[in-house]
Amino acid sequence: MRNSQKTYTMILMSLFIAIIILQTSIPFLGYIPAGALNITIIHITVIAVALALGPKKGALIGGVWGIITFIRAFVSPTSPLAAMVFVNPMISVFPRVLIGVVGYYVYAVFFKITHKEYLSMNFGALMGSLTNTILVLGQIYLFYRNHSMALYHVDTHKLLPYLLGVAGINGVLEALVAVLIAPAIAKVIKKAIKK
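RE: above sequence
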C-alpha cells in the first residue's frame, strides 16, 4: 500500500471513530429508544467499514463502539437495562468486535461463489447485524436469566420468549436497515479509496 493510501486510510479510520463516538453520544443518531431496549443503527457504520476496508478495521471500529458501550454502562447508560448488562464486556464489547469480522467474511465467501459484489455485501451486512443481535441477546439470557425479574420484570420462564420477541422485532429491523444502507456506504468508501 502506498504511503498516500495508508495516510488516506488512517484519516478515514479516524473519521469513522469520530462518527462512532457521535453516534453513541447523540440521541437518535445511533440509538432509537424503544422501551427497555434500543433499536441501534451504529452497526451500519461498523459493517460498512468492514465491507470496504476489511475485517481488522471493521473489528477496530466495532471494538471502539463496544468499549464506549461498556464505559457508558457505568457513567451514562442509554437505557435502564444497559446499566445492568453492558457492564459485562462479553455483552458490550465482544459482539461489537465480531460484527465486522463476520460481516466481512460472509461477504468474501459469497463473493467467491456468486461474483456479485453488491449481493454479497447484502449477505455480509445481514450476517454482521444478526451476529450483534444473537450474541447480545443470547449472552443476556446466558448470564442474566436468573436475574430476569429484577432486570426485565419478567419471570425467568418467560425471559426466552421475551428475548426472542426482541430479536424478532429489533433484530429484524436492524438487519433490514443494515442490508439496505451498509452496502451503499461501503461502495462509496471503496470508490473513494480507489481514487
